[in-house]
Design goal:
By secondary structure, the protein is an alpha/beta fold. It is 28% helix and 14% strand. It has a single domain, classed as Collagenase (Catalytic Domain), CATH 3.40.390.10. Helix 1 crosses helix 2 and helix 2 crosses helix 7.
Length: 250
């Protein structure tokens, strides 16, 4: 599985990164991720309660633990702290002020997942760093999601907390299922079939590539509606554990 990523990682991150993942696969194991949650709001707009935060962490655990129907990836999340910051600029323009926001708020080291909520937008509901990027800019490490995408939020079709599940997948080293379209190596995971383009809504019987297998429309690393998403694969679980051992563990 990791061998399929050789060219992809060479192109994006260099040969030393793909070799590091190959080696890390041999020593990968169960992972417990400490979570620091940062609620950025503008007065009452965007304010989230501790219960809201805990529901999102519970959703992460259910998704990565196989509780929605997929495999248990071996990854668990433990909330270790949270903060509330009232800033109109950070809230409405998290991309513009990403660096200053994260420099001020980020806690922990390379193995701590920092989640920030703000008004990210409607076209893009969240964004994340990859584990390979940590050593270049540690202060930028983390996941940013729109506050309306949390469980019970107001974003229609994206209100079950799966935006954070998806972006955390990137933080753990996963690509989109439609990465590279129908061209090898795809997303580099052997048990996620090739997919020409992102899923929209929840299409049934969709098969956009000539390779074996229908499109992985239910995978958390796709773009389907939250009601359609339910699974990670065993290969994705191996990938995130290997990436953890290579870049975040220890």
């Amino acid at each position: 599985m990791l061998g399929d990523l050789r060219q992809k990682l060479t192109d994006r991150f260099g040969t030393s990164d793909e070799r590091r993942l190959d080696s890390a696969l041999r020593r990968s194991g169960p992972v417990v991720v400490p979570v620091r949650f940062h609620v950025v709001h503008n007065g009452r707009t965007g304010w989230l309660s501790v219960s809201d935060i805990r529901r999102q962490v519970d959703t992460l655990n259910a998704a990565y633990g196989g509780g929605r129907g997929g495999v248990d990836t071996g990854v668990r999340f433990r909330l270790t702290g949270y903060s509330h910051t009232n800033s109109s600029a950070w809230f409405y323009r998290p991309r513009t002020y990403e660096s200053s926001m994260k420099r001020r708020l980020r806690k922990g080291g390379r193995g701590t997942l920092n989640i920030y909520t703000a008004a990210v937008g409607t076209d893009v509901l969240g964004f994340s760093t990859f584990p390979q990027w940590y050593r270049r800019a540690p202060h930028m490490d983390g996941v940013v999601v729109d506050f309306r995408s949390l469980p019970g939020g107001s974003f229609r079709n994206y209100d079950r907390g799966y935006t954070a599940v998806h972006e955390t997948g990137h933080w753990l080293g996963l690509f989109h299922t439609f990465e590279n379209g129908c061209r090898p190596p795809g997303d580099g995971i052997a048990d996620t079939p090739y997919e020409a383009r992102p899923a929209d809504g929840c299409p049934h019987g969709r098969d956009t590539c000539p390779q074996r297998g229908g499109d992985p429309v239910h995978n958390f690393m796709n773009y389907a509606h939250d009601s359609c998403m339910r699974e990670f694969t065993a290969g994705q679980g191996r990938r995130v554990r290997a990436a953890w051992a290579a870049y975040r563990g220890g």
